[in-house]
Every structure is written in structure tokens, then in C-alpha cells.
């Protein structure tokens, strides 16, 4: 705790610890660096200061506020859960971990984090940072989260257990790093079995990542002066609810442009924009589609890869803005 009080990074979600603020922050922090999250969190809280504001918003507004963070299912889940809290629970947040786990998109870590930080429960929230700290303390190559919670719980201070949980997270994020832990700066080194063995990076054992496949697709670029034809992605699919240039599995007739490359978590995309004549046919499932000018594009939620396509078109002098 003493170490944490001196070295804690001043993130905005570490003040005004309401269930809503903690929940939103933890959703954003999944698979995203804390420093990256800061401007998104501040913008989100300005746009949707309460769970009721989020529940009332249209999905396009939610996705626009999330744009750039990636993993858009997190935004969809927040929106669905907010509507459930407001419409079914009278705006009341769950009072325990089990209740939080019942909400869309809330897993064991997020439920424990809200219980600890916003509700003051004595619980250890095990994320990747805490899992690494616990594994090295125990010299455990394959840690089980439930066991780690039991091992680490006695370390939490009696007067402010939430700060102890947060200190463990901070320790893993800033000192007990995956490849180059600074054991000399670690306040838990005297009790760390991994450090005593001289090989803390052996714990937990690294899992070999499977190589991701590469997918080649084509983007149908239809232009009408400063307008471009865009369609809304299917809600249940990749980038669901976002707008973008229509994509196809086979090459259309037209003028190809330099490809755009983008890496997702489970595949690498090689997207070839192709200039086509006239507007593509609208989606057969009735999704929205149409011409989009500069002002409309500024408001629509677009994926990173679609922003890259628009940038290529501007660089080629095909699109003004």
C-alpha cells in the first residue's frame, strides 16, 4: 500500500468511484493500454455522464464515442447492459459480483473490479497483471484464477481492501512486467518464489500463440464528387453497427488502388479498394446504405480500416475531405 500511494498513476477513473464509472473504465481497459483509454474515458463521461444517458442513446452515438478503441462488442455490451439496468432494474446497479456477472459483457474480472472499487467488497480482481504477480509469488506456471484469489486475499489491508487490489494491478502493470520485471523495485520481492529462483519470467508459462490467417477482401469504392457510398455493418458480425465501404470476397470490376493492411485479433486483413461505376446494390438484409458527404462522414462511426481507405482516397486526390 505504501508503494502504491507513492507511485500510483493519476488516472481519471481513480476518482469518483461510482459503479458506472468503474464499469465503463474496466470495459475500456480490456486489451487496451491505460494511457490510451484516458481520452476515450473522459469523452465518454462527457457524452454519457450517467447510465440513463447511455441507455437513451442510439447505438450509432455509442459507437461514435467508442470509435478508435476497437473490440466494438464491448461498446455494444455496455449499451445493452445500460438499457437493461434502466428498463428492468429501475436504474439500480447490482449489489454483488453475481449480479454484475449477469449483465451482458461482464466477466469475472470486471464484476470483481466493480465490487472492489465501487462497492468496497473485500475481493481480488484477477486481470492479466494480477495473474502474473500471483503466478510469480507462487512460482506457478499455470495459475488458476480462483486459487490466486485465495492466495492474494490475505495481502489486502483490512481498512481499505480496494486499494490493495488496485495496488496489485498497478504492480503488475508497472513493475512486474511480462519480459523485464524490475524485481529490485518490487515491494513483494521478499516473499516472491519466482524471484528467489532467479527466473521470475518463467511464471506464468508463456502460451505459444497460433499464427493468424490472412484474409484478402475487396472494398467497393463508389464516388460521386465529394460523396462516397457507405453501408452499415450487420449488428452481429465483425465491426457490427459501424459504417464503412462495402466489402466483398471476390474482386469486382473496376480500378484497383493500393491495398490497405490491418491486423485484427484473429486474422490479418489485406483489403484492396476498387473504384467502381455507380452505387453498389443495397444490402439484401435491409441494412442502411447510401451516399455520405463530408459532414455526414464526420458524424458516422467508422472502423479504423475504413478510415484508412478514406485516407488513401484523399491521398490519391479522389476525395476532397
Give an overview of the whole structure.
The chain is an alpha+beta fold and 321 residues long. 41% of the residues lie in helices and 12% in strands. The protein contains 14 helices and nine strands. The strands form two sheets. Strands 1, 5, 6, 7 and 8 form a five-stranded mixed beta sheet that branches. Strands 2, 3, 4 and 9 form a four-stranded antiparallel beta sheet that branches. β7 and β8 form a beta hairpin. The longest helix is centred in the first third of the chain and has 16 residues. The N and C termini lie far apart (51 Å). The mean pLDDT is 95.
Concise synopsis of the structure shown:
By secondary structure, this protein is an alpha+beta fold. It has helices at 2-7, 19-29, 34-47, 51-56, 59-66, 73-88, 97-101, 108-117, 128-138, 145-152, 161-174, 193-196, 294-299, 304-315; strands at 214-221, 223-224, 227-232, 243-244, 247-248, 255-256, 260-263, 268-275, 289-292. It is globular and about 70 Å long.
Amino acid at each position: 500500500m505504501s508503494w502504491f500511494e507513492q507511485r500510483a498513476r493519476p488516472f481519471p477513473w481513480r476518482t469518483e468511484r461510482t459503479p458506472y464509472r468503474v464499469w465503463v473504465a474496466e470495459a475500456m481497459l480490456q486489451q487496451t493500454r491505460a494511457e490510451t483509454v484516458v481520452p476515450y474515458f473522459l469523452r465518454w463521461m462527457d457524452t454519457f455522464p450517467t447510465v440513463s444517458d447511455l441507455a437513451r442513446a442510439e447505438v450509432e452515438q455509442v459507437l461514435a464515442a467508442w470509435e478508435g478503441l476497437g473490440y466494438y462488442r464491448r461498446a455494444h455490451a455496455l449499451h445493452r447492459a445500460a438499457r437493461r439496468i434502466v428498463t428492468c432494474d429501475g436504474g439500480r446497479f447490482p449489489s454483488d459480483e453475481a449480479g454484475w456477472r449477469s449483465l451482458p459483457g461482464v466477466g469475472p474480472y470486471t464484476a470483481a473490479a466493480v465490487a472492489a472499487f465501487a462497492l468496497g467488497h473485500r475481493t481480488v480482481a484477477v486481470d492479466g497483471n494480477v495473474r502474473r504477480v500471483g503466478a510469480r509469488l507462487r512460482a506457478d506456471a499455470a495459475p488458476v484464477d480462483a486459487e490466486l484469489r485465495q492466495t492474494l486475499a490475505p495481502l489486502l489491508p483490512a481498512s481499505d481492501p480496494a486499494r490493495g487490489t488496485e495496488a496489485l494491478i498497478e504492480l503488475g502493470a508497472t513493475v512486474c512486467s511480462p519480459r523485464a520485471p524490475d524485481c529490485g523495485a518490487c515491494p513483494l520481492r521478499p516473499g516472491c518464489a519466482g524471484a528467489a529462483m532467479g527466473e521470475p519470467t518463467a511464471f506464468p508459462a508463456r502460451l505459444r500463440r497460433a499464427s493468424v490467417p490472412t484474409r484478402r477482401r475487396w472494398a467497393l469504392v463508389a464516388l460521386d464528387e465529394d460523396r462516397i457510398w457507405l453501408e452499415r455493418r450487420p449488428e452481429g458480425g465483425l465491426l457490427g453497427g459501424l459504417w464503412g465501404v462495402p466489402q466483398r470476397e471476390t474482386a469486382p470490376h473496376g480500378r484497383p488502388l493500393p491495398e490497405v493492411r490491418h491486423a485484427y485479433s484473429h486474422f490479418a486483413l489485406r483489403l484492396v479498394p476498387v473504384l467502381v461505376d455507380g452505387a453498389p446494390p443495397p444490402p439484401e438484409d435491409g441494412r442502411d446504405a447510401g451516399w455520405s458527404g463530408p459532414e455526414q462522414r464526420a458524424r458516422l462511426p467508422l472502423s479504423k480500416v475504413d478510415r484508412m481507405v478514406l485516407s488513401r482516397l484523399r491521398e490519391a486526390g479522389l476525395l476532397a475531405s
